[in-house]
Amino acid sequence: MIRPVVRDIFFLSQRSEEASAEDISIGQDLRDTLRAHREHCIGMAANMIGYQKRIIIVDTPAGDMLMFDPVITKRSGPYETEEGCLSLDGVRKTLRYREIETEFYDERFKKHRMRFSGLTAQAVQHEIDHLDGMII
Question: Which listed residue (101, 103, 107, 127) is catalytic?
Fold first, then answer.
């Protein structure tokens, strides 16, 4: 289901709770909502659609990737950039890393460890920040 994008800064600044298999439907809502905003968006976090759960989706070269309880385990190549967000107006400066390594669970709650670089790494970092209540 396509959900409205949350713009409430107080809500977005709260840390999200761990996800569970009971939260699979939130992943589908994220997928549907990202598709509806594909023109302006390459990733979303569950709190952007009203759920305080640690779930993100990112448009990767291999397709949309849902991640449950993602964490960044390694970072390298810091750089400054500007980012926008569907939940906020305008763009803001932020620090990102060119390469990251993450651990997360997929939709079947199978654990994965993956490396990302470039724009995909930047999007994953942005969405994980959302889960931690960090607003760019």
Answer: 127
